Every structure is written in C-alpha cells, then in structure tokens.
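2 proteins. here.
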Amino acid sequence: LARDNGFWIAAQYALHGETDSAFVWLDRQAWTTPMRTDLRCHPSLDRLRSDPRYAQLLRKLGLPVAIRSDS
C-alpha cells in the first residue's frame, strides 16, 4: 500500500519543507505512468525540483530532466 501512496506522502513532506523525507517516499513509490506525470508537474513538489536528487530520480525513471517553467 505504501508503494502506491508514496507520491502523496512525499508531496505532504515536500509541502512542509521535509525534503529528505519526501525523497525517501519518492524512492518507495511504484511508478505507474500517471504518477510519472504527477512527478513532472504537480505543484506540491516544486520545492524539490532544485534538489539534485529530483533530477537523479527523473533520470532513473527515464524521464526528461528539464525543469518546468511557469512563464
């Protein structure tokens, strides 16, 4: 169950500034296609995008590393 909810648990940690805990849960997530989309664009993870571990996770999942731009 935690592997299916890891993204949402990570999102809550990220929103509260708990970056290390957020990445622990992102590493536990079972990455289905919809969840990969959320990883790339969900605003609750904005605080994580500047962390090198974010780009590392994207590479691990075979996703482009370019950061989202709101401009």
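next one coming up
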Amino acid sequence: SDEDGTVEVWTVENKAGVKVAVLVTDRREVLTGQAGQVVANRYRIARIGLESVDLEDVASGQSRRVPLKGN
C-alpha cells in the first residue's frame, strides 16, 4: 500500500558523535531521529546499524530493515 511507502535512509553523526538517522519518505518528507525515537508519528527508529536502520511502523508494529544509501 502507499501508506507505508518507501523510505530512503542515511545516517550522520551530530556534533556529540551520536548517530542520527535521516529518512526521506515517499512524500519527500525529511525526518531525522536517534535510535529509540519516533519520527512523524509513523516510524520508531529501533536501531541504527553500520549498513542499515531498523524501522518499526508505529501503527502496525511491523519492523523492517532498510539498507543505508551511500553516505
């Protein structure tokens, strides 16, 4: 369905050296958050790994692993 749309993910480090996930949704929204945070009331960033980010859909509880785009 369109509702869970495609997401592209990058990671960056903030000034404190904390990894931050940068998500771009199918609606061209740009969302940022750290592990454990909920972004856009839609996704919980379950884990930020070296090569992927684990996202949990807040509404359905479904998780998916999204491979990182090239940094």
